[in-house]
Amino acid sequence: MPLSAAERQRRYKEKLKRDPEKYEDYKKKKRDNYHDKKRLVNDLTPKERHNARIIWKLRKKNLREKRNQLNRLLDITPPSSPSTLVPEVNLRQNSPQQNDDSDILSISTPQSSFATSRNVTKKGKGRTKVRRDRTKLYKENLRLQQEIANLKKKYEKYKKRFNRTKKETGENKQEERKSDDATKYKKLSNAMKERYQTIKIRKEKNSLKNIFENFEESEKIEMINESLGIIGPLRPTIKVKVNVSKLKKNIETFFQREDVSRPTAASALKKNGIINTDNMSELITVIVCNTKEKDCMYGTCKKCCNLKIQSNIDKDSNKIQWKEWVRVQETYEKDGKTSKAFKNVKQDKEATVKEMLDAFNEELKILKKHVYNIKVQFTNFRQAIDKLSRTEAVVVADFSENYSCKHHEEIQAHHFGGSRLQVSLHTVVVYVHTHDGKKVESFCTVSPNTNHQPASIWAHLDPVLKDIRSTYPDISLIHFFTDGPFSQYRQKQNFYLASTALFDHGFKAMTWSFFEAGHGKGPADGIGGYLKRTADDLVARGEDISCAEKFYTVMKDLSKIKLHLISSNNIESISKQIPPKIQPLPGTKDVHQIFSTSKEKSADKENYHVQQGDFMLVNVHAVKGKVFKYACVVNDLHEDGEIRVTFLRSTRKRNTFRLDKSDVADIDYTDILEILSEPRIISKRGQQYYVFKNNVDVSEK
Q: What does the domain layout of the chain look like in residue ranges?
């Protein structure tokens, strides 16, 4: 059996010690090596000197502990018996009191020994015995620890010998595969390697990797690398179990963080002890009666219209400083011409507490209106999706940030100037209601033209509206939801195209709602983020995306997102349809929603001549696309084009109805089916009934 390294080293030293000269040379080399590597304290760097001192302290501490341990051992070891306590032993023979043939052992003890013995108490004897037993156990413990250490060394030695023997005898080797099986495996592996190298879609590559999903983790990576020809470690797949409640709480915590949600003015006021909190929701609650009431949030409530944030202490004349983002105008010269530009910069501000509180209260008036608007908008947005009928569609649109074209390998000069082209991405999410329930479809239109004005908007919307019209021919009403930049969606040219170009596709009506500024990310933003991230991954794997056409070609088949390519000619043709002079809409800045109907529907609306107190038969849209018919009476006509009505409930007679005062709602002109004749009013048992001349065809829920 071969020797271990430790045994060979031990035998070598024993052999070396038998030759004094060689052993002396060996020790001399050790000493020389030590002195060569030895470094004085002055030669060490400050960090090395610090580490060396720590090591010295630890060594000294261990030495002290060993000495103290030895001293404690000596303390508990009982001393040897003194000579004065040793009794004198005399053998007296033939005592008169004894038989002649008996031997008596006589023990005589000095007087001092008896005195000492009398002073030893039972307690002292017990402590002596405890110390003696403790010493015995301590020594036994040391002996057993040494035995355990020796047994561990023997165990490791024999374990290594056993493994070497096992390896040499070939007990751990697997049986060799048959030659024909090896050939088949080699052919299959080569085919998989060639297939894997030609695939460019990640999903198909992952499907090949999933073949080895049932292998153990230790064999899985080896099998995938060997079978698919992958070099290097695999990217780990991390499966994350999402705790929805915890995730929701983390999102709420993030948006409530002071550096995310609070204005800088509130932060400065709180830091100087002027107010107790910088949470804007709490501050708004202080100055309004009810955050859900429009009058309170718009400042028209008589009870809370004059409420303001007050200072906790009298510091009105004290100066206070803070930082604030402001929009400033800068003038610069280019090509001999003077131009102006607006920039957002962070400036230091200073004012008295009173001045700052006055300015802060004015800002709160605007903020609480903004908060109310955005809450109502998202509530109505959710209701519009949840209560979709088969004749309606919700379209959420937004321009994604332009994608900068990239090459897998680029020279330095390509990074600068105008060499890098940009691609305009207009993302759209469409919600419709089908026989199978609610359905969501995603679109993205790609264009080399980076113009985002109304002509471009409708060029990008054109293929989306055509797809909706051809796939869902029953849809006649489109609800648009976008943000409200004045250079894109919320301006007079877009208003004109919304009331004309939409109806060229065969739709009969539309609504367009503009979200408040800073409303956050929506579903359309996710489309742009996914496409740009996927494009960057393709570039990293060797693909060149140099223009909008290449972006469209590479990305169109990688997901369920429907991509369309928009040329500059498409945008120019729509731009020519816009009249040169369009009358602007007064108060465009405060517009949050616009309505438009086709010419046929507008004529119907004019023929109705609806007035307050009229009785009508109208459509009422319910969930899952169901439509009911109700009779109602007109309460009020809103400026936004909707009609406030109170519904009537039918009785056993088809021409007799009673008024349901609790059932009040707003309807659109598009839902009017018929203007009913004036009914006759009768009273029975304190209840008023409306009796029409003819039967009314209603289908109530």
A: 20-75+128-151, 182-228, 247-373, 391-594, 598-691
